[in-house]
Amino acid sequence: MDVSLIIPTYNEKDNIHPLVERIHRAMGSLGIAYEIWFVDDSTDDTVAVLRDLERADPAVHVFHREHERGLASAVVRGFERAKGRFLVVMDADLQHPPELLPAIYERLSSGIDVVIPSRFVEGGSDGGLGPMRKLISWTARIIGQLALHRLRKISDCTSGFFGLRRDVIEGVELNPIGWKILIEVLVKGHYRSVHEIAYEFLARDFGESKMSLKEQWNYFRHLVRLVSQSPKDRRFFLFCLIGLSGVVVNETVLTILWYGLHLRDTVASVVASCVAMLNNYIWNDRVTWRSESSGRGWGRKLPVFVGISLVGVAMTTLVMRFCERFGVPVPIGQALGIVVSTVWSYWMNSRVTWRNIERESRQEGIVVTRESVQEALVRAKTGV
Ligand SMILES: Nc1nc2c(ncn2[C@@H]2O[C@H](COP(=O)(O)OP(=O)(O)O)[C@@H](O)[C@H]2O)c(=O)[nH]1
Ligand SMILES: [Mg+2]
Q: What are the recorded GO MF terms, alphabetically (predicted)?
């Protein structure tokens, strides 16, 4: 089997026949073996339409679920049943044009690991969404890209339309929450190359969208889980948490020295800051950038860390003073300064203090390429 198409369905009865017709028309010209897996959770008579089709069309298979629901898990069940060398996921509502399938197949068979039709590459569009959905979708993508480094170069990382070689997910435990199976695949999968093809996301003719506020919340939970499972992506959050712990240590030591031991305020303040810096260094060395060399090499790492932290303190004050000149209240300027210095000191620590660990994790070498829809269609027709 060359290609398995996996199509999740939830109450899509009017879309099934036009979809399957257009898939056959597009795929028929390729002369390859393909199957279509519908994973259906419908509560209307979509399943009856699918069962009739399954009997009449040997390429069509239906898996109807009674005890599980959700788009992403439906796709995982489809992956488990599919026999193809290449797996392609698409929606049933014709917002994903089946005419793009030959181009996706062509790219996968030329050796690309993951192919993503994209609404955001030149020539693409997400015109099938209303302005509110566009804004929500944009925000969701940006948050995802900030949180997970593997999504950063991918323009349409929340797409429900994509193809991959089976080995990308072989042996990978996919355990998505909610809808966005592609982010799970991109974060956990084994791949070296991603190719994006521009396409136009059209409006629905039949049925209605099942996207809801609950799914937005699930997306957020999904991101949190993926970040917590990804050593590289969780570092920044750990760094911030440890920074907060440093504030608590600082205040506690200051209180003990000043109220308890009656040291001079300046002495108490300097000692408290030094203890807090040491606290932060140890936790960052043992947790944030944990490695076999944790605990060793502190003669180099600790002074560098302290130097970066001191520059961070100076930066906070500079930003606050700069904001003050434009009439920004001091506490807000200080907060901005803290954000700037946190980002800066994280960046410096990952590139200087704990550079060996970052170097190892940067060697992923994933290559992302793009093409416009015209190029893809010409290639599909001419085979070049
Ligand atoms: N199996 C299954 N499919 C679903 C579920 N929710 C949505 N779908 C399907 O997923 C695809 C995308 O859903 P849609 O409502 O069009 O989302 P939108 O395009 O983002 O508005 C469609 O083919 C739906 O039928 C679900 O809970 N289970
Ligand atoms: Mg849709």
A: dolichyl-phosphate beta-D-mannosyltransferase activity
